[in-house]
Amino acid sequence: MPVSKKTITFFGASTGVGLAALRHCIEQGHTCIVLLRKASKLDAHYPPDRRPSNLIIREGNAHDSAAVTSCLTAPGNRNQLVDAVFTSIGAVPTSGGLSISDPDVCKKGISCLLDGLKTLRSQGIASGDPLIVAISTISHSRYGRDTALVMVPIYKVFVGVAAADKQVMEDRLVASGEKNWVVVRPSHLTDGAKPDRAVRVGIEDIQKGVESREIGYTISREDVGRWCYQNLLGPAEVRKQYMNKALSITW
């Protein structure tokens, strides 16, 4: 069955999981709006003279409310919100990997996104209920251990600051009143796609508890992006068991 074409906004798609998901969306003909601090960040993948017509790049910061809001309506129809938003913004490690360059990167990003949607609706500019897919991380579930035991000290030491930021991001998304969202918590991210390797999915209701648990060690950035396209961004309707849940995905 052919997949209906969507308009999807990306924040944080110059590398990693976001770039992997973006590639799948572009290949399948979806209209993709990408907010980048520098448009040239995608030149190596989509040179300006060969850029697909369904790729729209806008320059701006994911912490700038005006820039974010400008990416939330469909091209050619400012009265309609985009079909989906994929946010995978993050910060680079500092202090030997013990912290990150901006400990508030995700909480600020989700606040700009949610405020933008609220403003567009409240001012009667645009309507709709886009699917919001937010890339988070394992290691901070409130309902027990969600990573391999041997990895627990590593996450506490090296991912603690980022995980705390991700948890606030998740909480703000849950409390926002948005109707359609999914949080994706990958295990330790590696490079190198392995499309033949099965992806296991654990499901957690952030407010009520674990519905199913899958614990693993690693998964590649490419396979997280592919899984998100195949199961969240591409389908006409997201599986009911995934909607408004946090998903732990791993090999």
TrEMBL record:
It holds the Pfam family NAD_binding_10. It comes from the Eukaryota. Signal peptide: none annotated. GO terms for molecular function: biliverdin reductase [NAD(P)H] activity; riboflavin reductase (NADPH) activity. Residues 12-232 form the NAD(P)-binding domain. PANTHER family: FLAVIN REDUCTASE (NADPH). Belongs to the avfA family. This is NAD(P)-binding domain-containing protein. It comes from Sarocladium strictum.
